[in-house]
């Protein structure tokens, strides 16, 4: 047992994953908002975006002015994102925070409390409590999406363990 304060102790260093020409840890990889949004899009819409209003498949186009926002070319009045219609909708948190929380709970098997989530993501206690509730509700209401996201994150983690 050491007599150093807790903040001076060495923290856990996650495994590294190769992305492109450099080696990055999973934590650094999941910091990318574009990558996390892409993971959620593949998990929610495996065959491409589906309009929330008319249900048209393959009639979506990305808005260039706002990243992550889609518009439907079929009904021409619906704008939606990967979080629309899910428990993550109308959240002010970045998509990467949700994916990192899902990774910690599902892949790493951590049983996090609201206090731990609050400290880890630097959010208020009530926000952390809401985050945990929303992730559990997402797994309950959209099990196929949760399963596909878990599979993608496991693949990402497996790629990092080979380094």
TrEMBL record:
Annotated protein name in UniProt: Transposase zinc-ribbon domain-containing protein
Limits of the Transposase zinc-ribbon domain: 32-77
Start and end residues of each stretch annotated as Disordered: 1-20
UniProt cross-references to Pfam families, sorted A to Z: Zn_ribbon_IS1595
Organism: Parvibaculum lavamentivorans (strain DS-1 / DSM 13023 / NCIMB 13966)
């Amino acid at each position: 047992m050491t007599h150093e304060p807790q903040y001076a102790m060495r923290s856990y260093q996650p495994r590294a994953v190769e992305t492109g020409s450099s080696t990055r840890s999973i934590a650094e990889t999941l910091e990318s908002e574009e990558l996390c949004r892409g993971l959620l899009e593949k998990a929610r819409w495996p065959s491409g975006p589906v309009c929330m209003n008319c249900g048209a498949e393959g009639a979506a186009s990305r808005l260039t002015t706002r990243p992550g926002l889609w518009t439907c070319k079929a009904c021409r009045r619906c704008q939606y994102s990967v979080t629309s219609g899910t428990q993550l909708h109308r959240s002010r948190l970045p998509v990467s925070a949700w994916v990192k929380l899902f990774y910690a709970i599902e892949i790493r098997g951590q049983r996090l409390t609201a206090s731990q989530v609050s400290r880890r993501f630097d959010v208020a206690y009530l926000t952390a409590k809401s985050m945990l509730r929303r992730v559990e509700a997402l797994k309950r209401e959209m099990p196929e999406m949760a399963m596909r996201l878990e599979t993608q994150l496991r693949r990402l983690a497996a790629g990092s363990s080979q380094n």
